[in-house]
């Protein structure tokens, strides 16, 4: 072990810079690049990182002290390596001769080589990754596993996605490595400390361009093995090794002073008028946090990394009160038992998720709903004529397969409806596939299974598939993939009743078709009124993507197909 004195590096020529925070204490174990202190000048605040790993033996400064380049910060106890020879006197000739004789011994050389090979073989280890602190939530569902065995992941890459009653959250990888085995699967329930997977990670990371340090014995052996290589003095070797650990003045100045904007990542984060170090600001950028809304717990209300983590944890676990995230006043809590007997039941998870999604869509989408009636007189006559054939096929033909087929053809003829707004709000994503969701009422809540490639399937195929998916929804056997990828949704209340309603768009889709109860109405045919079977339809759409004229064209095309089923094959 050796004691190293850590001094203030080049800080851009600033003098008398105030110490506003000491990030370590006596006895702390610090890693290379960990922050030791935070300095603040008239122009900027800066963190001073540790040039090496070790244990803090003593502190030479206090909060409020004024420091300049070269002032002593603290003393570190480090592992004894080649640098312990920095202050050593030149070895006596007899000692040098003794070392050379030992190195010339073939047994010694082979032992050194075997040791190097052994260290290289142990360069990896198996790490078990568990669920970190998730705010005390228990039995949280795993809704997505983002990796699989054999994947190479980087530090910070998402491993799994969890969903509680309050929020969904991604669990990042704590280090880089190779996924060896998975301990969970989609649908599993986990809590803090539950095993996720095992990873093979590097046992020791060596900085790029930096060779591992050699002991005096290894250095001597190397000189013996390669006698033709020019020998360097011990002082020169030590100097080179020290330079690889302690930043040069130019590097320290570049790192500690206010950085210049050289890339998109280095642009100043919103919140330059608050106290926060560069590392904290970078972490805030990565987490997408506005640090102006945070209250710092450090000296002079300085924001620390712990403040960022505590803020995120609070947002994941807190219950809304007073106002929502969008500053919308919430309904006050009322004690209904004061007025009579009550019974309280917990909402199902599906009900909670549906409520959240509908609320999000209603807040984000400017809804417009248009109404029209489709003449299904001829279609109903044709559908009833298929009853015998349907019984032979073992399927039941309802109006829904015809609605699905007509909607698919209308989506292809009106591409604006078969699209989604890009997340940046500046592009439209047009889809070359036609997947349609069908809202199904189940005892557990509303579910929307998706029928794929509807435009390529026959009425018989759609009748069988829609019946099968509706039954799976009622039996709670739908998989997450069965409810994803929809381009358009049909919500039917025809079996219940009603003359119309305003369905909420199922974002990121841009439209939804509401179907009400078929009724017989008198319709003027040019000479007289005649009874016709009319189906009330409600088309809700996202006015950011679709205009009223577009909706009118969609309705005209759709109603034409439903009025004359022969058009569906043209």
How would you sum up this structure in a few lines?
With 570 residues, the protein is of the alpha+beta class. It is 28% helix and 24% strand. The longest helix has 16 residues, at 106-121.
Description:
With 570 residues, this protein is of the alpha+beta class. Among the domains are: 83-119 and 210-245, no CATH class; 128-197, RNA polymerase II/Efflux pump adaptor protein, barrel-sandwich hybrid domain (OB fold (Dihydrolipoamide Acetyltransferase, E2P), Beta Barrel); 350-569, Chloramphenicol Acetyltransferase, CATH 3.30.559.10. 28% of the residues lie in helices and 24% in strands. The chain has 13 helices and 27 strands. The strands form seven sheets. Strands 17, 20, 23, 24, 25, 26 and 27 form a seven-stranded mixed sheet that branches. A four-stranded antiparallel sheet has the order 1-8-6-3, with no helix packed on it. A hairpin with a 2-residue loop joins strand 21 (440-442) and strand 22. The termini are far apart. Mean pLDDT is 79; it is low at 82-104 and 205-271.
Key traits:
Chloramphenicol Acetyltransferase, four-stranded antiparallel β-sheet, OB fold (Dihydrolipoamide Acetyltransferase, E2P), seven-stranded mixed β-sheet, 24% strand, 570 residues, alpha+beta
